[in-house]
Specification:
753 residues; Rossmann fold; binds zinc ion; 7-stranded mixed β-sheet; alpha/beta
Length: 753
């Protein structure tokens, strides 16, 4: 019996543990489904496979090779670790052997994934008699190598940001690539949703336009984790009809999937034991039994807090290596590579990570995975869980719920989780802000004819608008770029992550950079006096120079962490549609101003509040779309103002979470603000907005399906066992002493009348 089998049995025999388990699902082992290497594949690459010991392919790999050789755009949808890279590497390398002039472009969402991929390609092509040049092309590529890659790279592996800002604008230097481009591979396709996906779809429009200019029309091969609408998303991204392959032929060992709801501490208030503390307990027993474990947390702060607890539990002597690491954005690349390597070699026994490791970065397969808090979507949950599980031997994954409504909904409705297909991934390439930005970039690259389309989008009016703005000038029915600036520089595909604040440790006489945070998170995480945690060590921020984007920190040893409060102000700029009834409904453009004004100090373990302090930083501003509901005076009868306010605050807490389930997006993509007398409507108003500049279509969708959302909201509140409202439904009991549950239900009655 393996140590994991033993531990699983101990848990099953432990009534206290089992009382917190709401579902213990055993996903049975599945035999692989194999097929002969297809005849369509060049004999030389078939031989290369055989010499590497591969005599058969998984059925989905063979199906992919056949689909691509039929000349189809192809989408392959399979789970983590199912050998999907061969699905595109085989046809691509096969094409290169047949025709040495042939070229391919690979897109991965991150640099790290691209670098992994090149190592694998070099391994596959090493035995061939023909040299196939595979290179990454990203910010780390040495200037001396760039020319050679542009000229003679057969397979260029890069990310969408680099394609957007460095390759497409300089297409004249890439003539060999664009003239001969036969395949475009897009891996981790499901990452291209929301605002990032909307940008990437436009980058692909630009890419196809340049290919057409040089006379090539490449085939697309896309890979995705399981989502509900792979075909639809692929078609949104590439604007072509693809062939879709979904059956997975890879074998799978037995996996235990446990849904765990921490015990109730205070039923009236709906308070449960902290999910971090429970995860700490379970992870410690796994790691002590020498079981390699990954623990996912929802936030960077969660990573650091849990890392501290786990290291304490290991009771190691000073100077000894605990074998436990943290992993998240903000760690430097060198640190991250060392951790990935330690995981593959088994030297690292436990790793606490944000969703940074959810992506396909190669860390080998682990034995156990603990997910602290519902990651926000079913697709993400399965992806994180996929980090544990080898070809043979038992593995386990556990979701530890927190007190939030969505978490409680998932663990109390296991059938919903196990029975439901994952979410639809939405992207909106015609988001006006995003589209305009890319039409600017595209006109810099090549002039537009007055009747040109951009992908499937009609842009005649937009071109005229850009002419009026003196961005373009027209001549003989063609629009030419006329500004001095270089447009791609100003456009970030990931909106918030472009400008980073660097964190500098000044503990020692020679200061060192220990990490970075994006500009929008900086007021929350590195305001003055904040405790910034890095690799299990604590640093206090002594100075944040927001203009220079630098935070100066010093190492400290304190018994608390800090948590900042965000306050948000919203202003309506334009109304697109409205409908007046018992409640007034509308959606339109808004401006959001966000300000961090104070922070709290919270003691480790007990999580008690140790005091607070002010934060003095400029506010950040965002334009987006919102959906809002306003209550006319006669609709609320004699409801007192304080009750209306309590009801609105309660709905603002709960509605974004429930709406995210209905619209199949991440709850963090939506935000709510309530105003008891809104300056614009002059009425009690609840606003829900897309948490992205420009919006990506959620507000419009909420305007359409608001009744479904509000019915589900009412069900969550009436199903909850609390008396006056709790964190599992409408949020914590309000500090003013007003209770939210009853007024929230009253407002819902009005909305659903
Ligand atoms: Zn409740």
């Amino acid at each position: 019996m393996s140590p994991l089998d033993e531990l699983l049995q101990q848990w099953q025999n432990n009534p206290e543990f089992m009382s917190s388990v709401t579902r213990w699902e055993v996903v049975p082992a599945v035999e692989g489904s194999y097929r002969d290497i297809p005849e369509e594949l060049d004999p030389r690459i078939r031989e290369a496979l055989v010499t590497r010991g591969i005599k058969k392919l998984y059925s989905h790999q063979a199906a992919a090779v056949e689909a691509v050789s039929r000349g189809n755009h192809t989408v392959i949808v399979t789970p983590t670790a199912s050998g999907k890279t061969l699905c595109y590497n085989l046809p691509v390398v096969g094409a290169m052997i047949k025709n040495p002039a042939s070229r391919a472009l690979y897109l991965f969402p991150t640099k790290a994934l691209a670098q992994d991929q090149v190592a694998e390609l070099r391994d596959l092509t090493s035995g061939l008699d023909r040299k196939i040049n595979c290179h990454t092309y990203d910010g780390d590529t040495e200037p001396g190598l760039r020319r050679g890659i542009r000229h003679s790279g057969h397979i260029v592996v890069t990310n969408p940001d680099m394609l957007h800002s460095a390759i497409l604008p300089h297409h004249t230097k890439w003539v060999q690539l664009f003239q001969n481009l036969e395949y475009i591979v897009i891996d981790e396709m499901h990452q291209y949703r929301g605002v990032f996906g909307s940008h990437v779809a436009n980058v692909i429009r630009r890419l196809k336009r340049i290919c057409a200019f040089y006379g090539s029309s490449p085939r697309f091969i896309l890979c995705s984790a399981t989502i509900a609408n792979p075909g639809e998303l692929a078609e949104t991204l590439i604007e072509e009809k693809p062939e879709i392959i979904t059956e997975n032929g890879a074998p799978r060992a037995e996996k235990h999937f446990i849904l765990y709801n921490p015990p109730m501490v205070n039923p009236e208030l709906g308070l449960r034991r902290s999910s971090l503390l429970e995860a700490n307990r379970v992870a410690s027993s796994l790691i002590k039994s020498d079981i390699q474990t990954i623990i996912f947390t929802r936030s960077r702060l969660g990573v650091e807090v849990l890392l501290t607890y786990l290291k304490q539990n290991m009771k190691i002597r000073p100077g000894e290596d605990s074998g436990i690491r943290g992993y998240r954005g903000g760690y430097l690349p060198k640190e991250r590579r060392a951790i990935e390597d330690g995981l593959r070699r088994g030297k690292v026994k436990g790793v606490v990570s944000t969703n940074a490791l959810e992506l396909g970065i190669d860390i080998g397969a682990l034995d156990a995975c603990i997910i602290t808090g519902y990651p926000g979507s079913i697709a993400s949950t399965w992806q994180q869980a996929g980090r544990s599980g080898r070809r043979s031997g038992t593995s386990m994954a556990m979701l530890v719920a927190n007190s939030e409504p969505l978490n409680q909904y998932i663990v109390s409705n296991p059938d919903y989780f196990f029975g439901r297909t994952p979410e639809r991934a939405l992207a909106d390439p015609d988001n006006m802000i995003i589209l305009t930005n890319h039409v600017r970039c595209a006109s810099f690259e090549l002039p537009f004819n007055h009747d040109d389309k951009f992908g499937r989008s009609d842009i005649g009016e937009l071109l005229k608008f850009l002419e009026d703005e003196n961005v373009l000038y027209s001549n003989d029915g063609r629009y030419h770029w006329m500004e001095d600036t270089y447009p791609a520089e100003e456009v970030s595909l990931r909106s918030a992550t472009r400008e980073n604040v660097v964190i500098i440790d000044t503990t020692n006489p020679s200061p060192v950079v220990i990490g970075e945070v994006d500009r929008f998170s900086a007021p929350m995480l590195v305001h003055e006096e904040a405790i910034y945690m890095h690799a299990g060590r604590q640093f206090q921020v002594e100075k944040l120079d927001f203009a220079e984007k630098k935070a100066y920190v010093r190492q400290v040893d304190v018994n608390y962490f800090t948590d900042a409060n965000l306050s948000v102000d919203l202003k309506i700029l334009d109304t697109f549609e409205e409908l007046n009834g018992p409640v007034n409904l509308a959606w339109g453009d808004v401006r959001i101003n966000a300000l961090v004004s104070m922070f709290k100090k919270i003691r480790f373990n007990t999580h008690e509040n140790l005091g607070s302090g002010p934060v003095d930083l400029p506010e950040t501003e965002m334009h987006t779309t919102a959906f809002w509901l306003a209550f006319p005076p006669d609709s609320l009868g004699s409801m007192p103002l304080s009750a209306i306010q309590a009801g609105l605050i309660s709905l603002a807490n709960l509605v974004p979470q429930v709406a995210s389930l209905q619209m199949m997006c991440d709850p963090r993509d939506l935000r709510a603000v309530s105003q008891v007398k809104a300056p614009f409507t002059e009425l009690p108003t609840l606003y829900l907005y897309d948490n992205f500049p420009g919006g990506v279509g959620y507000s419009q969708e909420m305007y359409r399906i608001y009744r479904d959302i509000m019915q589900a909201v009412r069900k969550v509140i009436t199903d909850c066992h609390c008396v006056e409202g709790c964190p599992s439904c409408i949020g914590p009991v309000l500090q003013e002493g007003e209770t939210g549950k009853k007024p929230a239900l009253q407002l819902l009655e009005v909305i659903l009348k």
